[in-house]
Structure to design on (390 residues):
């Protein structure tokens, strides 16, 4: 006789699948982190051994995943209320909050120490600060305190390309700052466009999203202002050592399209938006994803084309921004 | 009495164990690779202890100022 039952037909609490632990690390955010960190690492002057570069990317991504787990642990109450996040492992009852917290802390330590061993202390310090910024400054403090949460919290997502750059060079430069600025300025219009058509969720969760605290008219104006503020940052990058004609052309076209989209959002009122199911807001949100992807791809292309003498001669005609 | 019935619970645990095994093996391989790269990139290693080393002898022509 045995006391182990084999006829249990439900999943007991804490019996999560491996994929639930992966979900805890926010793999979609991690994929953006991997891409931007890789871009920062590849466009930086100098090079890492491929194994060191692979390790750097893996541990930057692991650090981002760890901060995602800490965010899910802290925000479990909010996630439970919102439709978009209700199926996350903690609100779904698959992983205990304490387990997520322990996993987040452990992976943070592993990621920072291993990045230090693989590259340098500066990159590891930046990764540690990023995790602290996302988990403590953003999740624990700003998210529930101010409608500017997205603006300041966006800094956490903006650090990966800078960490990639610093992993190679060991120091921060104007190029690293501009790549940071690109994601930092891009985050508010991207998320506010999302907030416009996901209004009920944030309201229900009592997160002080701009749409809830200042109204939807003000949010539309904010999207336009931040999109306009993004333009000089995106264009200035073209005139640094990582920019060039291809990036400049992409930046001009994409920023014109982004500003056009932001203007369209600004001109609309709620009646028009509700009538067509927030079509413009959804279009701009989707476009903003492509915007960042294409600009960083253009930077990678510039780094690849720099080895081609004919292109290097052409690129030399662009003035270079000297700040540091 | 041996448990012969394969339950969904066992499959889930098995999936978790395999996933964890893959992660651990990957981590070990990465640390091993990093170690090789760091050791190879670390310059010449002098591993001959308890023997005369001209580079450390100030009177020797091959002396190297530390």
């Amino acid at each position: 006789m045995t006391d182990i039952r084999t006829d249990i037909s439900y999943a007991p609490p804490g019996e999560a699948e491996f994929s639930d632990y992966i979900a805890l690390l926010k793999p979609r955010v991690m994929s953006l982190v991997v891409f931007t960190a890789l871009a920062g690492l590849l466009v930086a002057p100098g090079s890492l051994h491929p194994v060191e570069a692979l390790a750097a990317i893996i541990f930057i991504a692991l650090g981002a995943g760890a901060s995602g787990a800490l965010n899910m642990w802290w925000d479990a109450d909010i996630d439970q209320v919102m439709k978009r996040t209700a199926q996350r492992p903690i609100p779904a009852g698959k992983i205990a909050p304490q387990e997520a917290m322990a996993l987040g802390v452990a992976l943070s330590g592993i990621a920072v120490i291993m990045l230090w061993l693989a590259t340098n202390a500066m990159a590891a310090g930046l990764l540690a600060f990023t995790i602290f910024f996302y988990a403590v400054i953003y999740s624990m403090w700003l998210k529930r305190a101010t409608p500017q949460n997205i603006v300041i919290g966006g800094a956490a997502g903006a650090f990966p390309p800078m960490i990639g750059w610093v992993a190679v060079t060991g120091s921060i430069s104007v190029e690293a700052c501009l790549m940071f600025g690109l994601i930092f300025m891009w985050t508010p219009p991207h998320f506010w466009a999302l907030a416009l058509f996901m209004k009920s969720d944030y309201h229900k969760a009592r997160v002080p999203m701009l749409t809830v605290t200042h109204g939807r008219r003000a949010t539309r104006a904010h999207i336009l202002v931040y999109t306009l503020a993004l333009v000089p940052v995106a264009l200035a990058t073209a005139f640094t050592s990582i920019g060039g004609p291809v990036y400049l052309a992409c930046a001009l076209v994409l920023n014109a399209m982004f500003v056009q989209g932001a203007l369209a959002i600004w001109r609309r009122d709620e009646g028009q938006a509700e009538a067509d199911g927030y079509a413009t807001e959804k279009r701009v949100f989707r476009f903003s994803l492509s915007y960042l992807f294409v600009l960083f791809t253009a930077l990678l292309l510039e780094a690849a084309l720099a080895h081609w003498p004919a292109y290097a001669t052409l690129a030399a005609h662009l003035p270079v921004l000297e700040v540091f | 009495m041996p448990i012969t019935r394969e339950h969904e619970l066992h499959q889930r645990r098995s999936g978790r164990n395999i996933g964890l095994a893959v992660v651990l093996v990957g981590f070990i391989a990465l640390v091993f690779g990093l170690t090789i790269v760091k050791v190879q990139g670390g310059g010449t290693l002098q591993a001959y202890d308890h023997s005369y080393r001209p580079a450390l002898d100030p009177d020797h022509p091959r002396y190297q100022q530390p």
The CA atoms of residues 7 and 275 of chain A lie 52 Å apart.
